[in-house]
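Annotated sample (chain length 457).
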Amino acid sequence: MKKIVFSLLAGFVTMSASACFAVIAGKNTTKDGSVMFAHDEDDSGEQMLNVYQVPRGAVGDNVKYTWFEFPGTKVADAFINEYGVACASDGCQSREDVEDYTDGGVVYEVRTLIAQKAHSAREAVKLVGELVTARGYASSGRTYLVADSKEGWMISLVRGRRWVAYRIPDDKVMALPNNYIIDRVDLSDTENFAGSPDLAEYAQKRGWWNPADGPFSFRKAYASPAQFDHPRNSLRQIHALEIISGQKYEENPNTLPICVTPKRKVDKELLMEVLACHFGTPDQPGKHLGGICTAVDILAVIFQLRSDVPVEIGAMGWVAAGHPCIEAFLPWYSGMTKSPEGFCRYATAKEAVDKHFTDAEDKQVNYPDAKAWIFTDRWKKANTTNYDNVIGGITARNKKFQKKWFAEQVKFEASLKKYYDPKTGRVTNRVALEKALNDFTAKAYREYFKMLSEEKL
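Output written by the structure step:
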């Protein structure tokens, strides 16, 4: 059985090396009035999660941000900064074959620019557009997701200097697989769109769009045809949309909606259901191999971005440090200044920034005490001992743990009111607030690791 499982895993990884997934829920769709942004990060190979609290000025004139880091990667890291701007990305292959770059172009710099400079999601769109226009995007294509407490955006980049951004409506929910999904583009509507002015003209010149065939569609014109038509993308998007809306959809990427109206108010539990969804695929029917949650999930996070409390509290992420079907989601606040023990391999965030690409080999050998291996080893063990036989017990334990910490969040945040003025939102005792936030997450992990130590897989 073990040989069969890992043979299938290898096949799925080959088919789906980039299988990230994202959901953004507008503020009018959520139970608490927040913008909610959920993301599954998928990458193969040895991956080590670190979480750094990067202080202001550590990297030039950066703002403070929380960095969910995977050493050596250009497109895996997620961020949330002190202004409550969160970002992550999904790989989206384009059909562009012209390499138009200045100084080698950019890839990793896109996400770090957002984390280090953006004061809002809308400003992030502007910054990314300027960067890509100036230097060119040095990969096939990618969609970056950015959100704050007011709004969420998709920014789709194409190899070279073309890009387009779309604002998710406040009353809708978006689900993004590894494919461009932005359809019609109206750059005159600056409230909801931004992008390169020649998108349609260039697509027509390259033979990717013929006006005689109908209005210009970004996704049909710029997506790699093989990627656009791949059932892996359609199936994952359909399952997410069906969970969110309760409606049924045809397996046709040309007809799938960008956004839908949810069947009920969106909350953390609904988004967890989406991120942990398993359904298999026609060529990989094993239910723990195919789905939105895949064999190469390395991080799942649900950013809960609220405006009714200070941003240090209101902007936070619920993090599953591995597979969302296996791990519980634990709280990380943007106002934290210290990560729990075992989540940082270096003493300072500056050293982590400097060595992100240079110290990326043999990570488990070189850093054996990192908490990251608890999560990766647990996934391997669950598969070795037969996933289908153990997942029921794991789910039950996580559900109980999750319920407790959702309740703890409510009580904890009520206790923080003594550290800020509720009328202005101004923090009056920053040192005490930061310590309380640090301690809360550390306590959550202590209890979680204790639960795992008693687990028998």
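Annotation: The CA atoms of residues 420 and 428 lie 5 Å apart.
Annotation: The two ends are 16 Å apart (CA to CA).
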